[in-house]
Amino acid sequence: MKIKTAAIIASILFFSCSGGNKLKENMSAQIKGEKDSMVIINNDTSEEMVANGDYASKASSPYSTFKIWNTLIGIECGVIDSSSDLFYKWDSVERQRAEWNRDMNLSEAFKTSCVPAYQNLARHIGKDNMNMWLSRINYGNKDISMGTDIFWLEDENGRSIMISPLEQARLMEKLVNKKLPFGEKSMKILKEVMLSKHGKASAIYGKTGTGRDNTMGWYVGYIEGKGFSYSFACRLYGEKISGKDAQAKVEEVFSSAGLFQPL
């Protein structure tokens, strides 16, 4: 029994080491832009892998990646009860994105990244509760002075709450390892809505974010599989860049390392 257990542990350690090396190589291959960056953290060992560390440490607006935390805080404050209940009642205002022009449950609002739905959520949470929770989890620079329902969206003067890819990945690692003050219900609901893609032996959970005029793209989340778990944050810059571009790079990094095989 001891020999068998030792063999299993050795196998896991070998897998983690080789997987980590492949991830580092793939990150370097994918992150080529001067300002682009990616951070991957092994949730079991806390090992950090960083591509373009100078920019991974620079803070910017989180844009829609903040919906991860807005969701959790909304559940903790009793504003959200499940992923399937009516979450957003459309106000009949026609918006540019047609998929926002309807009533939605939480899962639908999260996946379509419905800004008015989450602005409504932030108003219900309120300034005091939002401030309290951002301080408790130490989110970025914790500055919501731009307004309770807009602080995660950069305005025309470049103001917003600020957080770096390194901070995003570290916060996600704490969330996955249950080091943050969120209850089991909150974690369960978030995981339901955050599921991005099922693979053959793993699944990716994440949220995209796209900057003003499509000049920045975020993808933040984690991947879980048999014997491994990693948190990640990727931020790209350029013309016509969106969160989908960052998502594609993250998926390619894990896929090339053999950690994610699409169904």
Automatic annotation (TrEMBL):
Organism: Candidatus Onthomorpha intestinigallinarum
UniProt cross-references to SUPFAM superfamilies, sorted A to Z: beta-lactamase/transpeptidase-like
A single GO molecular function term of this UniProt record: hydrolase activity
Protein name (Swiss-Prot/TrEMBL): Serine hydrolase
Keywords: Hydrolase
UniProt entry tagged with the keyword Hydrolase: yes
Record domain Penicillin-binding protein transpeptidase: where: 42-254
Key word Ribonucleoprotein present: no
